[in-house]
Specification:
The protein is α+β, with helices and mostly antiparallel strands. Helix content is 35%, strand content 19%. The protein has six helices and eight strands, in the order βααβααβββαβαββ. The protein has helices at residues 26-33, 39-48, 56-73, 87-98, 146-160, 175-183; strands at residues 17-19, 50-53, 102-106, 112-120, 130-137, 165-168, 196-198, 201-203. It has a six-stranded mixed beta sheet with strand order 1-6-5-4-3-2, sandwiched between helices. A two-stranded antiparallel ribbon has the order 7-8. β3 (102-106) and β4 (112-120) form a beta hairpin. The longest helix has 18 residues, at 56-73. The radius of gyration is 16 Å and the shape is globular.
């Protein structure tokens, strides 16, 4: 993607939460300080976890487990059926072609705790400075600050790649994800009523 001196990298929230962030990074840092976890606790967690670029060979299987749990038990993904292992081949290929990062949080025992990524927001040229992101944490490791740490990593990568806005589409009942994005300085940018249908009810995005 071509560089643009006027572009200020700005995280945005759920697609109904969009935020434009300052490049100094203070927005999401101070937001983290005001969250329920102390900065010291977050710092200890981040030292215990290391971050890697996920690959199909090393991480696709564990990522698929996280995806399929989210599909079966939540509205984080609007899929109905579990994804097949073959789907991860095309998924990683699309990330590689778009030069989109896939960042994994790895425990000291090499377990994948979660991952975050972004991709094309919309296909038309004028949207080239915007991306839509997602973050997923293993069900046994939620509430430990891992999602926050992953999003920090992802925001920095977006800045490096000269993106201007990050957009996240979040089901309005997903209060945990909305709270996470609020701590990072994302702002609500609108609500699409009845955007999806899952678990026998209409979902607002």
């Amino acid at each position: 993607m071509a560089k643009h001196d006027a572009v200020a990298i700005q995280p945005a929230k759920p697609i109904l939460y969009v935020r434009a962030d300052r490049c100094d990074g203070l927005g999401y840092y101070h937001a983290a300080v005001s969250s329920g976890r102390s900065t010291r606790a977050i710092a200890i967690m981040e030292r215990a976890v290391h971050f890697v670029t996920c690959t199909h060979e090393a991480h696709a299987g564990k990522m698929l487990e996280i995806f399929n749990d989210a599909i079966a038990t939540s509205t984080a993904l609007f899929d109905y059926k579990p994804r097949a292992s073959e789907s991860m081949v095309g998924w990683f290929q699309a990330k590689e072609v778009g030069r989109f990062p896939v960042i994994g949080a790895i425990a000291p025992d090499n377990q994948l705790l979660g991952f975050a990524t972004y991709g094309t927001f919309r296909a038309w040229p004028a949207y080239k400075y915007s991306v839509e992101h997602s973050v997923y944490v293993h069900k046994d490791h939620r509430g430990k600050g891992i999602g926050l740490a992953l999003m920090r990593q992802l925001i920095e990568r977006a800045k490096e790649q000269q993106y201007h806005v990050m957009v996240g589409g979040i089901d309005i009942t997903n209060t945990g994800s909305i709270a996470l994005h609020t701590r990072l300085g994302f702002v609500h940018a609108g609500t699409v009523k009845h955007a999806g249908f899952k678990f026998g009810k209409w979902l607002d995005l």
